[in-house]
Amino acid sequence: MARRIAGGMRWRPDWFVLSLIAVVATASILPCHGAGVSFFKALSVFAIASLFFLQGARLSRTAILSGMTHWRLHLAIMGTTFVLFPLLGLAALALFQHALPPSLRIGVLFVAALPSTVQSSIALTSIAQGNIPAAICAATASNLIGIVLTPVLLASMMDVHGGGIDFASLWKIVAGLLVPFVIGHLMRPWIGNWADRNRAVLAVTDRGSILIVVYTAFSAAVIRGIWHQLPAPTLAAVALIDLMLLGAALAVMTIGSRAVGMCRADEISIVFCGSQKSLVTGAPMASVLFSGDAVGMILLPIMIYHMSQLFVCAWLARRYARTAAGVSAASLGLHRGARRELARIATEG
Question: Which tens digits make up the pLDDT trace of 250-267?
Fold first, then answer.
């Protein structure tokens, strides 16, 4: 997957995407069963709690407050994430009404309801030379709001399609995700410096937690016969729907930002914070909201969307950077910090 890109930079292998593919392949060949199921379910619960605890510990209060006065920008990002995307998701399913089985339809709606990412939104905004303080604030707020709002939105959209979510699951979200996050943030005065110094190590731990959840979910799905239920045309339909969601959202945000007179830096923040969807939040949330047999199928659309947003938005960020610099692609020289940020985009779920 390594290849040359504009300006002589080399695109490094996307280890997290490769790891996701490897985990799905492993679960397909060697799914956990018997006593292994109980072990991996317990490990998943611990991994999810640890993930959100560490996210809370790393979250600076300054980052939360920074840029909050820019209400028009934040309103645009929240509107895209929690209004535009759900509408696009419902529209996409209306177009592909008979192309997907029920679990995949839920998965598409789940993508539409998820909050933005944090790390990759900020990294992309930095590379494109956008409004970084506003991106930090918006992405952080999106994740915090999404812990509660995503299940509510998903339930509302599923009602339209004749399904629903047991709202008792919201207590599981609070207990399994929000409580560890709050505890981690309250402990930041004591462990925050350690967490800040070890961000690279903790990023690996975060992604490892997601891989455990994905392996557990796909093991149950494989035993249930997921690959017999997913012919190639169905997978292609999921990929097409994901690309349509991403492309439509990017187009609406770009055109809308320019129509209301947003400056270029704010447009960039809106485009990248609004278009990203968080696998880091999605995988644990799906494991709490849905039964083990269904989680693997439901996670497929967000995994495909995750890969799509990395490649499309990394290209778009470089394009913004070239425009800002006013130079040709051949002479573009990104500063050292931006190179590191681009290399780390793939570590965000």
Answer: 999 999 999 988 889 999
